[in-house]
Amino acid sequence: MGIFLCFLFFLISLASACDRCAHQAKAAYFSKASALSSGACGYGSLALGFNGGHVVGAVPSLYKNGAGCGACFQIRCMNTTLCTKQGTQIIVTDLNNNNQIDFVLSRRAFRAMAYKGMDEDVLKLGIVDVEYKRIPCEYKNQNLAVRVEEISQKPNYLAVKFLYQGGQTEIVAVDVAQVGSPNWTFMTRNYGAVWDTQRVPAGALQFRIVVTAGYDGKWIWAKNVLPSDWKVGVVYDTGVQISDIAKEGCSQCDDGSWK
Ligand SMILES: *[C@@H]1O[C@H](CO)[C@@H](O)[C@H](O)[C@H]1NC(C)=O
Ligand SMILES: *[C@@H]1O[C@H](CO)[C@@H](O)[C@H](O)[C@H]1NC(C)=O
């Protein structure tokens, strides 16, 4: 144990704080994109609209019990005959429990790593060595949004799903209160990108969320999100967007763009 701790300390002191670190991994693909639309994050068919359908199931260490839902990555395959240096961008919508493979991509995303005309050859490989790094998610003219889930039951139960989370962060806590009230109620992650509470404040609702950012965390305050007559199945604009970047540690940063 002592040796392990020393080793860990040694590793951390060697690492520098980076916006992006490159990691090596293995990737495969789902034969059907619809396999991912019922993914563990709970995005449903909305997921197919993310990143042009470049969705991915990630290993538990990247899925992070749902905190990794909506995280964006640049990923490239290491076979330089078949695959471009820049690779493609993917977004986490599902959990992948196969510990031999780090990412299971939608077919469309898997092909997108290849040069034009080489995509069938890449598909034939089935499993490829890849390099990946976390990148900020960018939603043009689109704020962070919350969707009121069908399992919600007014006035006793509220479940919301976060959509279009920009930046390179993870949501680690969510509170809800009536608009203008300082009486905050905490919400709990139910699963994936869905947070819920059984103590639902009355009236129109505001949210504050904690995201990982920089070296620690940051509050994001959405002052007026749900109207008092909020309805299930509706997506509400939070009026805010996240652009922060949570740092990670690696021996060498990979902050440039892959070309
Ligand atoms: C890349 O893929 C091609 C086609 O499958 C294969 O012939 C070649 O050996 C691979 N190259 C590397 C470096 O794996
Ligand atoms: C605060 O909000 C909770 C949940 O809506 C409610 O049960 C409680 O009575 C409120 N407390 C005050 C002091 O208003």
Keywords:
2 domains; 36% strand; 6-stranded mixed barrel; Barwin-like endoglucanases; Immunoglobulin-like; binds 2-acetamido-2-deoxy-beta-D-glucopyranose; 259 residues; mainly beta; elongated; 8-stranded antiparallel β-sheet
List the helices and strands and how they pair.
Elements (H helix, E strand, L loop, with lengths): L1 H13 L1 E3 L4 E7 L4 H4 L17 E4 L1 H4 L8 E6 L10 E8 L7 E3 L1 H5 L7 H7 L2 E8 L9 E4 L9 E6 L7 E8 L6 E7 L2 E4 L7 E9 L2 E11 L8 E3 L10 E3 L9
Parallel strand pairs: 2-6, 3-5
Antiparallel strand pairs: 1-16, 2-7, 3-6, 4-5, 4-7, 8-9, 8-15, 9-12, 10-11, 10-13, 11-12, 13-14
The structure holds 2-acetamido-2-deoxy-beta-D-glucopyranose (2 copies).
Average of the residue pLDDT scores: 91
Which ligands are bound? 2-acetamido-2-deoxy-beta-D-glucopyranose
Query: How many E-type strands?
Result: 16
Instruction: Tell me about the largest β-sheet.
Output: 8 strands, antiparallel
Strand order of the largest sheet: 14-13-10-11-12-9-8-15
Provide a descriptive summary of the structure in words.
The structure is a single chain. This protein is mainly beta. It folds into 2 domains: 17-135, RlpA-like domain (Barwin-like endoglucanases); 145-237, Expansin, cellulose-binding-like domain (Immunoglobulin-like, Sandwich), CATH 2.60.40. Helices cover 13% and strands 36% of the residues. It has helices spanning 2-14, 34-37, 60-63, 107-111, 119-125; strands at residues 16-18, 23-29, 55-58, 72-77, 88-95, 103-105, 128-135, 145-148, 158-163, 171-178, 185-191, 194-197, 205-213, 216-226, 235-237, 248-250. The strands form 3 sheets. An 8-stranded antiparallel sheet has the order 14-13-10-11-12-9-8-15, with no helix packed on it. The protein has a 6-stranded mixed barrel with strand order 2-6-3-5-4-7. The longest helix has 13 residues, at 2-14. The chain is elongated and about 60 Å long. The N and C termini lie far apart (43 Å). The model is unreliable at 1-12 (pLDDT under 50). One 2-acetamido-2-deoxy-beta-D-glucopyranose is lined by residues 183, 185, 199, 201.
